Amino acid sequence: MFHTYPEAEQPIPKPLATRGERAWHWVELGLNLPYYLLELAVGPEHDSMIRHISTANLDVVTEAFHHAPRNTRLRSVSLLSPDYVNGSKGYQLDRVAEIWSPNPDFPSRLLFVLDDSRSLQFCLSGDEDTDEEMQLLADFKLLAVEIRPSP
Questions:
Q1: Element (H, E) at 122
Q2: Does residue 96 fall inside a structural domain?
Q3: Cβ(50)–Cβ(75) under 8 Å?
Q4: How many domains does the chain fold into?
């Protein structure tokens, strides 16, 4: 969840905002939760536009991974994790390799396996039951493999 404020809005010329887009100089992170940064390639492989989408909603991430719209390819997923998740003194941004949860229908507890093999845990309720069997929600490792066209 992001909060926006009128004083942070950046006017966009109408010809550049053909679908009514709006922009802000800054947004406030509404809750102290993990956020995701998705890198998408939109358009033909040889002439694609790169888009970066930020969300706090895991459903947006898994939908982009499992059911990307036509001509859209998910290139990477990064996790912006708060201090209580990553063990540091503030937010950190890391590429995600896998996301696991004991309950895919209600993922209130998540295990993030990062590209560098570290793992981070997030529990919405604060009650970490470590006996539950984890299920893989998304495996992003193949996104990092660059597919080259054959000569």
A1: strand 119-123
A2: yes
A3: yes
A4: 1
Q: How far apart are CA 80 and CA 92, in angstroms?
A: 5
- The sign one gets for the Cα dihedral 21, 27, 32, 37 is positive
146 DSSP 8-state letter: P
Residue 8, domain member (yes or no): no
Query: Tell me: the pLDDT tens digits for 91-137?
Result: 999 999 999 999 888 888 999 999 999 999 999 876 665 678 999 99
Considering the domain boundaries, does residue 83 fall inside one? yes
Q: Residues near 127 by Cβ (< 8 Å), separated by ≥ 6?
A: none
Length of the chain: 151
According to DSSP, residue 120 is labeled: E
C-alpha–C-alpha distance, residues 85 and 3, integer Å = 22
Whole domain around residue 74: which residue ranges? 31-144
* 44 part of a folded domain: yes
**Distance between CA atoms of residues 99 and 112, nearest Å:** 5
Query: The pTM is what?
Result: 0.84
